[in-house]
Amino acid sequence: MAQTTPNHTQTVAGWAARDSAGEIAPYTFKRRENGDTDVTIEILYCGICHTDLHQVKDDWGMTMYPIVPGHEITGIITKVGKKVENFKVGDRAGIGCLAASCLECDFCKSSQENYCDQLQFTYNGIFWDGSITYGGYSKMIVADYRYVVHVPESLPMDAAAPLLCAGVTVFTPLKNHNLIESPKKNIGVVGLGGLGHVAVKFGKAFGHHVTVISTSPSKEKEARDRLGADDFIVSSNPKQMEMGKRTLDFILDTVSADHSLGPILELLKVNGTLVIVGASSKPLELPSFPLIFGKRTVKGGIIGGMKETQEMMDLCGKHNITCDIEVVKPDDINEALGRLARNDVKYRFVIDIGGNSSSL
Ligand code: NAP
Ligand code: ZN
């Protein structure tokens, strides 16, 4: 669908998928002029989240083509509208998944914009002016300042980019369950990908005992040596799963595909909580026995609010937490998406939109 909104006059170079084959190709499109509450950001880096892969392939049946993905954006502010507070030209800025919300409901007022029922996303959403939103696989973006955060000076712009989605998505459930700088608990992380590896880093930074539950035995050594995981359970190994029963207080499930929750629930202690943030397009199997015999809870969660996002960025600055990334050129996005689909990335691809990485 072409944009016809009158003030969409700025021509931007980007990369889009045209159909559910999900092939990404250069795409030139229009963005709105910088409004009173907008900032314009020259994009330097954009992470490739598994959500981008779901969306370009229309896994969830909601994609509006052409789609310009990307919601792990870092860049430099080049313009500020006259009603913008707290940002100035030259600031290092980050944009995650949120583009708009009603700003009036209880969720918006308590900075849980991510649960506003009028929430619109950074891409494949409908902005206040009726235009379709286009994401960070592009050179420049115009965003309402209320959905923008500061990137601390101590964080590199490339390795910080995935914090804007992967980071806040795993941070918020930890915060909601009082696991930030709290007494030591036993935490499990299911799926060691983009979200999972940040969850392990947060768990360790906040002083917990962290167990990775993975389908990939090849990830064990690095998970322990590099990310600091204390234990590693291969989910297809019945002996390891048996040994792990009733050991964990809290589990974050970041798996992108269909899988059974029963064996994962068995790893929780009585009263333990499983939070699902992975977004499988198929319904997950949830057997009743591990729930009722363990008085266990299963919950979900989507990203985090804007205050939480800034808090998470600041904590990452303080603890020096960044993502483990592989930087790719825009020309290599398709190859990166293919490798992501094959579970072949440690642990996040980041696109060098600004052409600043000397290693490429
Ligand atoms: P990712 O980098 O591909 O990581 C997913 C991990 O899941 C893989 O590394 C793999 O870990 C595991 N996995 C993959 N296929 C599996 C299977 N068939 N069975 C069991 N485990 C499997 O993806 P991501 O970017 O972290 O995103 C993960 C999911 O979260 C996606 O569905 C994404 O859309 C969703 N997401 C949700 C939110 C939210 O707000 N709730 C935000 C961002 C992303 P192992 O090799 O260790 O098994
Ligand atoms: Zn994401």
Automatic annotation (TrEMBL):
Keywords: Metal-binding, Oxidoreductase, Zinc. GO terms for biological process: lignin biosynthetic process. The keyword Zinc applies. One of its GO terms (molecular function) is zinc ion binding. Residues 22-351 form the Enoyl reductase (ER) domain. Its cofactor is Zn(2+). Pfam families: ADH_N, ADH_zinc_N. The keyword Zinc applies. Belongs to the zinc-containing alcohol dehydrogenase family. This is Enoyl reductase (ER) domain-containing protein. It comes from Linum tenue.
